[in-house]
């Protein structure tokens, strides 16, 4: 199996407005806001950056999403720990979570089935 690069970057923040302005000051363009303290920005030819606000008492996370062409064609080496197999998401993709040798979680994202 081979991935096709980084599909998206997901970031959590304690202040959506400040985070969006920060990325815009770096040259990113706001593609859309969801209306509930989150949205997506894009910079040039790179992957989109989706930012979501979380409560102050929750630690923020950053996640890189790796693109795969077909979830059904993914065959992982047995040494790769699958945390969650491919599942349909509410945003129209299929995602799998794996853990690397240092304990970091990685998301593999594929187009919807069929």
Automatic annotation (TrEMBL):
Domain VOC: 5-111
Superkingdom of source: Bacteria
Compositional bias per record (Basic and acidic residues), positions renumbered to this chain: 87-103
Organism whose genome encodes this protein: Amycolatopsis minnesotensis
Annotated protein name in UniProt: Glyoxalase
InterPro entries referenced in this protein's UniProt entry, alphabetically: Glyas_Bleomycin-R_OHBP_Dase (IPR029068), VOC_core (IPR037523)
Region span, Disordered: 85-114
């Amino acid at each position: 199996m081979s991935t096709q690069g980084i599909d998206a970057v997901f970031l959590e923040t304690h202040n959506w407005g400040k985070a969006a302005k920060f990325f815009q000051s770096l040259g990113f363009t706001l593609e859309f806001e969801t209306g509930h303290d989150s949205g997506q920005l894009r910079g040039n030819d790179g992957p989109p950056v989706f930012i979501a606000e979380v409560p102050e008492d929750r630690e923020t996370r950053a996640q890189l999403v790796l693109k795969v062409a077909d979830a059904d064609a993914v065959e992982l080496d047995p040494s790769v720990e699958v945390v969650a197999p491919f599942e349909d998401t509410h945003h129209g993709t299929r995602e799998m979570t794996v853990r690397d040798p240092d304990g970091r979680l990685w998301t593999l994202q594929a187009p919807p089935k069929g």
